Sequence to fold (305 residues):
Amino acid sequence: MENNTNQDSNSRKNSNIIYFLIVVVIALLGTDVYLYTQKRGSDEKIVYQNDEKTRLQAELDSLEAQIQQVNTSKTKMSAAMASRTDSLQSKINMLRVELKKGKLTAAELSKAQEDIKQLRYFVTKYTADLEELKKQNATLTTERDTLKTNLATVNTKATNLEAQNKDLATKVQVGSALKTSSLLLVPYKVKDNGKESVNDKAKNAKKFKINFSVANNSIAAVGMHDIYVRVIDPAGNLVAAPDAATFNADGQDLQYTYKTSIDFKNDDTPYVVDWVNPQPFVKGEYTVVLYSDGFTMGKTTFTLR
Fold:
């Protein structure tokens, strides 16, 4: 009986030991599972952080390339835009330094992600602003070229108009100049008592009477007009005035033989100019040319015997 009691007591002790061992084994297994799970989570977290750092670095590369492309464009940036470019580049450099750290905490990684997100926004907006500036520059360039073309056209028209005005002014000037409708040269002999008679012999002639009429001209100025007389002798030489004075006619400066004035009334009034030769006449053909208002008025010849 006593043996049976001892046997039952031993059996209970063995059972308790087994239960304890089972509990210990389960606890150890639980600890291993917990540690494995923690390690796995930590490894996954490190892998995640490394992948995210790589992605963020690639994002910074893309942003920097975009900024450099903007900087190398031919669009002229304002001082404010150039300053913004420098600020963005400094921010990128700072973020690169942060990402090069051996490890980043969750907070640091989150902050880097947010900074790059904001940086992407600013770079995108900056690029859009620059594109708008390029469009405005293109528009201004087009407007400038159009203005240049219009100005060239206006200048050409002004030049043509000026030439036309000069041509018209010249035509008016030519048209308003006096012209002879008749011109007659008559040699006269002058006696000592002053009596005059027509004489075509060179040895007897003392002066020419230049008889002329002026053609009607409605655009010619009514009033006094200077008349310049040039007398050319048979040898082709000008019989010049004593003071060798000059005048301008037909675009050239000329010496005259004699100068007088007439009162033009546009009424067919006949005029007579007396010219006394200061030297003896010679045989041959004499030519007389009249000028007024800067142009030739008329021309005639007479031959002395």
